[in-house]
Amino acid sequence: MISLNHFLVVGALLFTLGLVTVATRRNAVGILMGVELILNGANVNFVAFNHYVTGGVTGQVFALFVIVLAAAEAAVGLAIVLSIFQTFKTIDVRHADLMRE
Amino acid sequence: MEPHANLQVVGHAAEELGRLAVHNVSYLWLIPLFPLVGAAINALIGWKLQKVFGKKIVHRIAVTAMFASFAVALRAFWQLLHLPADERFLQNTLWNLLTAGRVTVDLAFALDPLSMMMVLVITGIGALIHVFSIGYMADEPAYWRFFSYLNLFVFAMLLLVMGDNFAVMFFGWEGVGLASYLLIAFWYTDPEKAKAGMKAFVANRFGDFGFIAGLLLLFWALGGAWTPRDGFARNLDYRPATELNAVAAAANAAEADALAPRVEGVKVGPTLNFRELRDQVVIEATGVKEHLVHANIWGVSLLALVGILLFVGAMGKSAQLPLYVWLPDAMAGPTPVSALIHAATMVTAGVYMVARLNFLFALSPSAMGWVALIGALTAIFAASIGFFQYDIKKVLAYSTVSQLGFMFIGVGVGAYWAGVYHLMTHAFFKATLFLGSGSVILGCHHEQDMRKMGGLKKYMPITRWTYLFACIAIAGFPIANGFYSKDEILWKAFTSRHLELFGAPVPWLGPFIYTVGIVAAIGTAFYMFRSYYMTFTGEYRGNAGHHDEHNVDPHAAVAAKASALSHSVHADDGAAHAFGVDSHAPSHGAVKLHAVDHAAPAHGHDDAHAAHGHDAGHAPATHDDADAHGHGHHGGTPHESPWTITLVLSVLAAGSFVTLFLGIPAAWTHTAPLLEHWLEPTLLAEVPFAHVEHVWEYVFQGAGVLAATIGWLAARALYKDGLSDVPARLKARFEAAWTVVYNKYYVDELYAFVVLKPSVALARSLSRFDGSVIDGLVNFVGAIGRFLGRFDAGIDKYLVDGLVNALANATWGAGRQLRHVQTGRIQTYLYGALGGALVVVLLNFLIS
Question: Are B826 and A96 an interchain contact pair (Cβ–Cβ within 8 Å)?
Fold first, then answer.
């Protein structure tokens, strides 16, 4: 029988993998993917808690919002990546260190 | 020798004298103004005027100023003459110089009979000497400078004699010293002449110190009288009314005058004004005389001290015994200067001052005794040096010192008018002698050594006759003025019994002074006729080629060069060279005449040479002088001087005759001599003389003439025509004595040893003291300061700076380290955020 905990473990794994991706990837697109993983980890939690704890559709709707948000975020993020590429002729984030100044 | 010893007052009536009536006039300031303006014009733009208009304009300015001044003086004399005798006092106050409490010092001029006489002598003889200078200084390139100085001198001298108070007089006193210095050192390129100027100035400073000390002492004495202090017994019977003690500040002169205390209408208290001083002393009711006579300072009579200190000033200015040394050296100046300043006017300032203050000196027989004694000693001392000098101007210089001694005998024994009369007669005959010597020097091409002269009577008749007449005057033959003044002085000296020294009566001092004086008079006649015979009789000795130590003409150095130059350029001139004056032919007519005189071939004038003189345009004036020199060396013939010179000589010689009528002795006419009568209102001091029968006076006059005759005959026997070999034999016989006297008793060397060397040594030791002790102290203090500074710097550097730097370094280092935190990489920040979250979580676990 699959319980809430299984979902939570999957959500946590997704979140952690996303976090690690964001923290370690040098490719900006990879980082964006990691962000998607984090969002989706959160989505799993929303849906799981909605199903096992609260009932109704509130969690489901929230997850849908998150997906929409993720899409928008991906668009914006890719635009930023494009801009980074135009500026640095690379998408390696190690080189995008202008904020140090 | 002691006819009657009973003392009585001679001359002045013994009745009480009143205040001096003052006539205020407004033109006296013009008298000194003209020379001042002349001096200013020539000093400021003279060089330009001389360049543009020639030398004529320069001397015209100066001489015009002098004659204008003389004219105003005559106007004043006229006014004075028409006033009653006891009201002859003109005063002209210009403005207030100083107001301090009740003391006011005005820039004011006064003319009383004494200063009137002096002003007439100064402006009159001064104007003549200016005229003389035109011819004498014709070769001088700095013509304008000479006339500027000469006018400046006259201005200062007029301030001296016309000053209404000590302040103005002292200003003039210092002013004539300055002018004297400038003129002695006129040819300043010659170090000897520059030194002579300095010597005169420094010797005068010694005297001036005494003068000003006496002045301040007198001022103090008068002031002390009016501020009675407890415990000062001498002021008890002299305590003035209470309002006299009120010291109030006055805003201006009028107010100060109003505040001044008065006794019987006479302003009393400290004053610098001659007339006020005279009124205070003369009018017995003020008590000033009583007070002064009895005042003592450190046991010495105050009046004697004042008199002696003031006389020290006179010693310096009038070249008396200890301080006379500058006057012979002052002959380094141009001859007109010697005549004007060092014979006729400035050196008589001391005599004038003593005569001016006769009312003070008469109160102190001690001061008078010293004045007379010093005068007598100076008279004989200087006369003896004059015996053996060869420089004609040096003879006259020592003669001047000697004659000044006679004047001081006069004012010292109380025969004030006789001293002043001798001052005036001396001004005439000594100016004649000096200018005559100047004419001789010019005629002999700047030769001053009498051994190189001789026989000049052939060549310079006018100079010779005037010189001879002046010799007669100074020797004391009754046909010229010198006899009358000298005889009066010696007679009064003989009859004087009241003189004191150190406060003790010395009745024999008068006859002693007479004896010294009559010996000095023999000497005077001797050395003057010696100079006359050596110069004017015999054969001219200047032809022998010579260039000895006496030729110390300032131009010598320049001349030698320029002379060589002119030789090379005008080789065809041969030995013939023009006289200095010749190339100036266009500048004054007189020289033309002179040039004609010398047209004779013997003088080697040729046309080429004349042309040369004009071609050169006489722009380089030294060149003219060089010619004069060259001529002398080539053995030219002496020549008479231009008319400006001979005219002046004649006028002065005539003056030496005319002025004798001012002093016809009372013994002859039974009335007071004109000058004595004229000076009576000023020279009012009552001095007792022994009463002697008139017949004795004739005897003494005979003795005077006899003295002159002895001197004359001795000189005639020894020096006439230069034939006698007795002088040479005497010289060989008494070589040692001769050397001592010829070298002026080694007084200069003595001074160098006694005064100069110690003062130089003192200066050296002080310099050493300064260098080692004072500088050492200063350097030590400096070193301490430097050490403290270093220490402080160390503290600052290592402690304070260290702290500040450590703080800064720490901040800097921290920033440097923290800088690495901000990488600009988003992932690093993420690590930070994660780390922070981890910490929060862990804390959450740990705390709960």
Answer: yes
Q: How does DSSP classify residue B312?
A: H
Q: Residues of B with CB below 8 A from A94's CB? A: 825
**Residue in A22, A24, A94 closest to B825 by CB:** A94
Q: For residue A97, give the nearest of B823, B830, B831 by CB distance.
A: B823
Which of B824, B827, B831 minimises the CB distance to A101? B824
- The reply to whether B823 touches chain A by the CB within 8 Å rule is yes
Q: Which contiguous run of DSSP H or E holds residue B441? A: helix B416-443
d(CA B55, CA B140) in angstroms, rounded, equals 10
Segment B217-229 mean pLDDT: 64
The residue of chain A nearest to residue B824, with distances taken between CA atoms, is A100
Task: Average pLDDT across each block of 10 residues of chain A; the chain has 101 residues. List them in order.
Answer: 90 93 90 92 92 89 93 93 90 81 71
Q: Average pLDDT in the B26-32 region?
A: 90
Choose, out of B818, B826, B830, the residue to mutate when testing the contact with A (most A CBs < 10 Å). Answer: B826
Q: Is B786 helix (H, G, I), strand (E, B) or coil?
A: helix
Please indicate whether, in this complex, the C-beta atoms of A100 and B834 are within 8 angstroms of each other. Answer: no
Dihedral (Cα; A45, A46, A52, A53), 10-degree rounding: 110
CB of B12 closer than 8 Å to CB of B680: yes
Q: Residue B653 pairs with which residues in a beta bridge?
A: none
Residues of chain B above pLDDT 90, percent: 28
pLDDT tens digits, B646-683: 888 999 999 989 888 888 887 788 788 888 888 888 88
Contacts of A84 in chain B (CB under 8 A): none
Q: Give the 3-state secondary structure percentages of chain A, helix then strand then coil, rounded to 5.
A: 85, 0, 15
The amino acid that residue B765 corresponds to is S
Q: E strands of B46-172, at which residues? A: 90-100, 103-111
Q: Kindly state the tokens that stand for A57.
A: 């559709």
User: Are the C-beta atoms of residues B521 and B707 closer than 8 Å to each other?
Assistant: yes
Query: What pTM does this model have?
Result: 0.71
* Mean pLDDT, residues B701-715 taken together: 90
In contact, B132 and B62? CB cutoff 8 Å: no
